[in-house]
Design brief:
The complex is a heterodimer of chains A (about 120) and B (about 110).
Chain A lengths: L2 E3 L4 E5 L4 E3 L2 E3 L5 E8 L6 E7 L7 E2 L2 E6 L4 E6 L8 E9 L11 E2 L3 E6 L1
Chain B lengths: L3 E4 L2 E4 L5 E7 L5 E7 L5 E7 L6 E2 L6 E5 L5 E5 L8 E9 L2 E4 L3 E5 L1
Parallel strand pairs in B: 2-11
Antiparallel strand pairs in B: 1-3, 3-8, 4-5, 4-9, 5-6, 7-8, 9-10, 9-11
The chains are: A mainly beta (about 120), B mainly beta (about 110).
Chain lengths: ~120, ~110
């Protein structure tokens, strides 16, 4: 079974600074998807970024970028120029590619990292 | 706005009572899911439906049943609620680009 580990239960960052959240995973598959989700106090799950394992290039979405190290099974999230609105729980998630054509995924989540942003 | 709608948002049940959580999506997605989230944990998959007419167990299916009523609707039923089922429940749907989550149902079983 796949597992996802987030070793930092809580982190904090000064506003406008950069922070990196860590995630490691375990799988025997060669192709899969990795995700970072943000959960603010409203409890809504918001997709931050997605990485396809067969792509060498690290995904980027505005101030959010990942460092994907396939051999090390590591998938960290870097948040640049941190803003107060970035304060939330962040979850790393893994999905095998079961039926990508139909858009069917089974996500395995880590336990999350609570990020605080200090004004 | 298009998305995933869950009802109710909050519910308190007594042990042994039954209830159905409703979920509907208007995004024309084939796949739908039910997850639960417990304190200090990420979301865990209860059941999923890869397409209309099919359902499969996820990681934690015991104590639950599901029905994929049509392409839009996917319900989760607790036949005899137990305190261990106190949790926040999320419905979601997906296409090839990823998931859309509902806003969650906070269920307390006393």
């Amino acid at each position: 079974a796949q597992t996802v580990t987030q070793s930092q239960p809580e982190m904090s960052v000064q506003e406008a600074e950069t922070v990196t959240l860590s995630c490691t995973y375990d799988t025997s598959e060669s192709d899969y998807y990795l995700f970072w989700y943000k959960q603010p106090p409203s409890r809504q799950m918001i997709l931050v970024i997605r990485q396809e394992a067969y792509k060498q290039q690290n995904a980027t979405e505005n101030r959010f970028s990942v460092n994907f190290q396939k051999a090390a099974k590591s998938f960290s999230l870097k948040i640049s120029d941190s803003q107060l609105g970035d304060a939330a729980m962040y979850f790393c998630a893994y999905s095998p590619i079961l039926n990508s054509g139909a858009g069917s995924y089974q996500l395995t989540f880590g336990k999350g990292t609570k990020l605080s942003v200090i004004p | 706005n298009a998305g995933v709608t869950q009802t109710p948002k909050f519910q308190v049940l007594k042990t042994g009572q039954s209830m159905t959580l409703q979920c509907a999506q208007d995004m024309n997605h084939n796949s739908m899911y039910w997850y639960r989230q417990d304190p200090g944990m990420g979301l865990r998959l209860i059941y999923y439906s890869a397409s209309e007419g099919t359902t499969d167990k996820g990681e934690v299916p015991n104590g639950y049943n599901v029905s994929r009523l049509n392409k839009r609707e996917f319900s989760l039923r607790l036949e005899s609620a137990a305190p261990s089922q106190t949790s926040v429940y999320f419905c979601a749907s997906s296409d090839r680009y990823g998931y859309t989550f509902g806003s969650g149902t906070r269920l307390t079983v006393v």
